[in-house]
Amino acid sequence: MTDGFGFDPKTTTIESGRTVTWTNTSDVDHTVTAYEDTIPEGAAYFASGGFESERAGRTHLTEGLVAPGGEYEHTFEESGTYEYYCIPHESSGMVGAVQVE
Fold first, then answer.
1. pLDDT digits (tens, 9 = 90+) for 37-94
2. DSSP class of residue 66?
């Protein structure tokens, strides 16, 4: 997932139906939170903590934190680009994207 305050890799390309696992390799808590307005139409929303909306993820931040050494995974079924970010570190540029083909 992270190397300090960034996703590594920042962007990845996968085939539809594949699962991505983010592993927190830093020493601070992070989230994986999709930008709800930019995910492909018909695609399932995703966020660490299992939230069904971006607002819920922001409102219940502590429930979505991935601790150091922790993991979060999501299976991508729909083609398109999925942009995501870490809520506490978005302003530091901790953003990423999954391109599903």
1. 999 999 999 999 999 999 999 999 999 999 999 999 999 999 999 999 999 999 999 9
2. B
β partners of residue 84: 34, 96
Question: Does 2 score more than 90 pLDDT?
Answer: no
Phi, psi dihedrals of residue 48, rounded to the nearest 5°: -60, 140
Match domain 11-100 to its CATH number in 2.60.40.10, 3.40.309.10, 3.30.160.20, 2.60.40.420. Answer: 2.60.40.420
- In the structure encoding, which two tokens stand for residue 21, read together? 């696992």
Verdict on whether the full-model pTM lies above 0.85: yes
Asked whether the CA dihedral 29, 73, 35, 95 is positive or negative, the reply is: positive
* Coil, helix or strand at residue 70: coil
Q: Could you state, in order of their start, the residue ranges of all structural domains in the chain?
A: 11-100
Is residue 80 within 8 Å of 97, Cβ to Cβ?
A: no
